[in-house]
Design goal:
This is SOS-induced cell division inhibitor SulA. The protein is an alpha/beta fold. The protein contains six helices and five strands. Helix content is 38%, strand content 18%. Helix 5 runs parallel beside helix 6. The longest helix is centred in the middle third of the chain and has 16 residues. It is globular, with a radius of gyration of 23 Å.
Length: 157
């Protein structure tokens, strides 16, 4: 007994399947959509791996921030022990525009970061606070808005 042959649906290659997906919105749609009136003041970056590799990934970003043509500082709060003055020099950062602060018994890293943000003397305050809960995140956002700066928290895992 023979069964009628029903052709199987053609299987798309991975490239064809990707191309069959809806494309990104048209540029007109993007331009017509309302923009946020308020810029983002908080960002968080999570890096996993060997400390040296993570610092090598951070170097270009920190170098760019240290070279901003801005009268304010790039402030680093509670960086890992491997981020030393010699590392800053070797990574090509402008050390004349960087404040490097460590928390002490009087202030936690979160308190120190909020204070640096609120004072407004830093264009960007980079912190290494882990874990960072939603209440702490809101404190950083509020402080950054008050001081008209940017808060960047880096989580090394």
């Amino acid at each position: 007994m023979q069964f009628p042959h029903t052709p199987l649906p053609a299987q798309l290659t991975l490239f064809e399947a990707f191309m069959a997906q809806p494309m990104a919105p048209a540029i007109k749609d993007v331009l017509d959509s309302p923009w946020s009136a308020e810029p983002e003041v908080f960002s968080e970056l999570s890096l996993r791996g060997a400390a040296g590799n993570c610092l090598n990934l951070l170097a270009p970003m920190l170098r760019e921030l240290s070279e901003q043509q801005n009268a304010r500082w790039l402030t680093l709060i509670a960086p890992p022990a491997s981020l030393t003055q010699s590392w800053l020099r070797d990574a090509g950062l402008n050390r004349e525009r960087i404040l490097l602060l460590q928390p002490n018994g009087n202030k936690s890293a979160l308190q120190l970061t909020c204070e640096a943000l609120r004072l407004g003397r830093s264009h960007t305050v980079v912190s290494w606070i882990n874990p960072l809960n939603s209440a702490a995140r809101q404190q950083l956002i509020s402080a950054a808005r008050t001081g008209h700066g940017q808060s960047l928290n880096i989580r090394l895992g």
